[in-house]
Every structure is written in structure tokens, then in C-alpha cells.
Amino acid sequence: MGRKWNNIKEKKASKDANNSRVYSKFGLEIYVTAKRGEPDPESNQALKFVIERAKTYNVPKAIIDRAIEKAKGGTEESYDELRYEGFGPNGSMVIVDALTNNVNRTAAEVRAAFNKNGGNLGVNGSVAYMFDATAVIGVEGKTEEEVLELLLEADVEVRDILQEDEAVIIYAEPDQFHAVQEAFKSVGITEFTVAEQTMLPQNELSLTEDAKIKFEKIIDTLEDLDDVQRVYHNVDLGE
């Protein structure tokens, strides 16, 4: 797969260690997801997924509970889910998912993040076709063989199973995300090192050191925007 998910998360955690931005973004996503459905994760699978993902990033329970309680209230805040696709140096590709209550503001900020760092926005569909929607789930305390046997017994289909450092990472179709988790929960595993619905590039691109520095500026600028929830790309950053 070309990516070490534990290393990626460690790098992100280190970047976010000195601020609460990651918590705020999860709080907003939980609020919006709860508002659009039932504010109960047991009856709202989308909400359940967001909460489980938040837990892998150590989002405090108080923030999760506060977002759900806010959704139960009578607030009429409206948020739009947006996806932007763009290019960095040397044909590098980026997908940006945003959640915003001001579309014009978000569009301007995302465009500026690209333009000021040597990239440019593309049209819808110009990048996404080179990525595959993928469920990524990680567990500790099991070998690849044990995980494979468990998933076979549960009749769960996966794309790949890889040992990455101390964890076993499972790559599957998005519609198998909950089935994979339920298979582990059936044997008492309820904590996951990774629980992501992501976009994986079909091919990764290597950049020169100068181009890589420019590209990382694009990614860092995008991830620092309050309205941006997730950023996907096809560059091998040596993580």
C-alpha cells in the first residue's frame, strides 16, 4: 500500500500536539453528523463511525459529548460538505474535504493555499479518479494470520492485511468498514489504532527535495484551515 498508517498518525499527532485544532474539527464533524441524523451513535451509523475515528485520535470524551448535546438542541446552524481537487508541483495530486458554513470563504482559503505555494485548483473529477475510497482499520495484539482467519470466519472481504510496526492494518472496501470492526468486537477487541474511511492513491509519486518542501507547505496550509476536515494526496513523503 505504500503508506505506514501508524507513522502518519504519529506525525499528525505531533503536529497537532500544541493546539486543539484537531479536537475542534472532530467536534464540528460529530455535531453535523448528529444533527443530520439521530444524536445517538447506536442508531446513527455515520455518527458511530465519526466517534470511533475520533477516539483513535484521542479526542476527549467531553468534547464528543458536548458536540452531541449541542446537536440535540435547537440550533439551526447549516453546514455544507465540500470536496476540492487540486495539483501541487510536478503533477502531484490533492483532495480536500471541507465542512463549512460559508462556502465562499472556504473556496477562497483553499484556492489561496494552493496558489501561494505553487499549486492550483482543478475542476471536479480532475484528481479523484486516481484515488480509491478505502476503509483502513488497525488492531494490536494479533498476527496477520490470526486476523486473516478471524475475518474469513466472519465472511468479511478485505483487500489486504499488512503488519505495520506493532499493529496489523486491514484495507477493505468502504462498505466493509463496520463488518471488519464487528468481527473484532465479537472476540473482545474494541480499541483500534486506526479507524479511517480514506482516499488512497492508486500510485504514489516521489518528488525532488525542493518540490517536496513546496508540496508539504500546501498540505500544511490546507490542514491548518478551520473548514478543512481531511486532506488526501499521492506523494510519498517518506513517512
From TrEMBL:
Compartmental location? Cytoplasm
Which GO terms label this protein's molecular function in UniProt?
Answer: DNA binding
Q: Does the keyword Transcription regulation apply?
A: yes
Q: Which InterPro entries match?
A: Integrase-like_N, TACO1_YebC-like_2nd/3rd_dom, TACO1_YebC_N, Transcrip_reg_TACO1-like, Transcrip_reg_TACO1-like_dom3, Transcrip_reg_TACO1_YeeN, YebC-like
Give the TACO1/YebC-like second and third domain ranges: 79-235
User: By its UniProt entry, which PANTHER family does this protein fall under?
Assistant: TRANSLATIONAL ACTIVATOR OF CYTOCHROME C OXIDASE 1
Listed name of the protein: Probable transcriptional regulatory protein BKP45_11205
